[in-house]
């Protein structure tokens, strides 16, 4: 019981709508809240058939992506500390038709509000309904930004942007990442990414080694992504 109370108290600090809930709604969430620790590589949510619930990341990193019929992946967006994911509870919004997969990119602690619990509170609470709409609009904006990148930006610029994003996330210029992983993020093929990275290496932008990419000239990568 004491551990449960600590878990809920921590959750209160992370869930932005807690103070907008009434006593009964708070108790409903507290009684049904799921805490979960997942290892890197764990699939947390897999498509429309899986209505996991609303995810709230306490610490770690999640990746939301789509999978084509041919098995190619493309990252839609990532989730970090204190981020919330609604697409994992897409069954509460009937208009959502596309399937997404959510995977832990790092060991992650998270909370899950079961879909039916959140759906019931959303029907009762205008602040929760409004926040849900805002959250969904933000995620669709992320997806639209991605579509613009695919349609209008060449692959070299997208790879440069991805490498710079990774150095920012990891806090280092030495990235332990495979060409296959980059291809999955960008919706490309490993061979294409390998050719692009070898070109970058020839230009003195990066250094390639087994399972690692070292950024040598971040300023030129920044110039490339903006050009």
TrEMBL record:
Gene3D superfamilies: Jelly Rolls (2.60.120.10), Winged helix-like DNA-binding domain superfamily/Winged helix DNA-binding domain (1.10.10.10). CDD domains: CAP_ED. Residues 153-219 form the HTH crp-type domain. SUPFAM superfamilies: cAMP-binding domain-like, Winged helix' DNA-binding domain. Keywords: DNA-binding, Transcription, Transcription regulation. The keyword DNA-binding applies. It comes from the Bacteria. This is Crp/Fnr family transcriptional regulator. It comes from Blautia difficilis. The lineage of its organism: Bacteria, Bacillati, Bacillota, Clostridia, Lachnospirales.
């Amino acid at each position: 019981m004491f551990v449960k109370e600590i878990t809920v108290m921590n959750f209160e600090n992370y869930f932005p709508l807690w103070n907008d809930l009434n006593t009964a709604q708070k108790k409903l969430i507290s009684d049904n809240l799921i805490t979960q620790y997942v290892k890197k590589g764990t699939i947390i949510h897999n498509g429309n058939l899986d209505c996991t619930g609303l995810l709230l990341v306490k610490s770690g990193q999640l990746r939301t992506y789509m999978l084509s019929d041919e098995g190619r992946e493309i990252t839609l967006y990532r989730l970090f500390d204190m981020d919330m994911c609604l697409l994992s509870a897409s069954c509460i919004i009937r208009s959502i038709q596309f399937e997404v997969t959510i995977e832990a990119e790092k060991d992650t602690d998270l909370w899950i509000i079961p879909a039916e619990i959140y759906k019931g509170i959303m029907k009762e609470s205008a602040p929760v309904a409004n926040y849900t709409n805002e959250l969904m609009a933000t995620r669709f904006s992320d997806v639209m930004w991605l579509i613009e990148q695919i349609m209008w930006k060449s692959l070299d610029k997208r790879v440069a942007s991805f490498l710079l994003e990774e150095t920012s996330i990891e806090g280092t210029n030495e990235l332990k990442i495979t060409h296959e992983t980059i291809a999955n993020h960008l919706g490309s093929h490993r061979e294409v990414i390998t050719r692009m990275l070898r070109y970058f290496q020839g230009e003195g932008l990066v250094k390639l080694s087994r399972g690692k990419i070292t950024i040598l000239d971040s300023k030129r990568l920044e110039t490339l992504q903006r050009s």
